[in-house]
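Field guide to reading this record: the first block holds the primary sequence, the second block holds the structure written as discrete tokens, and the final block holds curator observations. Each block starts with its own label. This record concerns Protein N-acetyltransferase, RimJ/RimL family, catalogued under organism Palleronia pelagia.

BLOCK 1 — SEQUENCE
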Amino acid sequence: MTLTLRRNRQRDLEPLAEMLTDEEIPLLNPSAKVPFDEMEWQRKWLGEAQDVSFYLEDDDGRDVGFFALREGVGPEVRHLTYVYLTEDARGGAAAELTERVEEAALALDALVLTLKVEVDNAPAFNAYLSAGYEEMSRRQGMAMMRLDLEDRPAA
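BLOCK 2 — STRUCTURE
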């Protein structure tokens, strides 16, 4: 499966709501209401003007993933949040997912990508390591990771 990046310019969260099950909402955001509340996400979780979100589409044009990039310390740093892939898109898609995230960050003129990942989520943690992220610190079961984009080609 090839994943295609689609920027969510209208901040439309209905496709995300359609992809998520109630059981998956706490995995994506433990503080969010269940069931999915589009207004809560627009206001509270993706409400900053600098927040940019993206959908990932499969070969048939179906939405199978979502992620957001928040502005970090200045516009040259983007922080990856709310990464989600549907169950049928998960097997073997880690490398492509990290490539699409990098593509999106470069399109936003980012020089650095950061993220937090649960250290006991071995598939995600290892995917980020394989993509070149370095672990900066660990706290409360979470690893803070960083990827320098400066030497990477623009999308």
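BLOCK 3 — OBSERVATIONS
The longest strand covers residues 74-85.
Helices lie at 14-19, 25-28, 38-45, 87-90, 94-107, 122-130.
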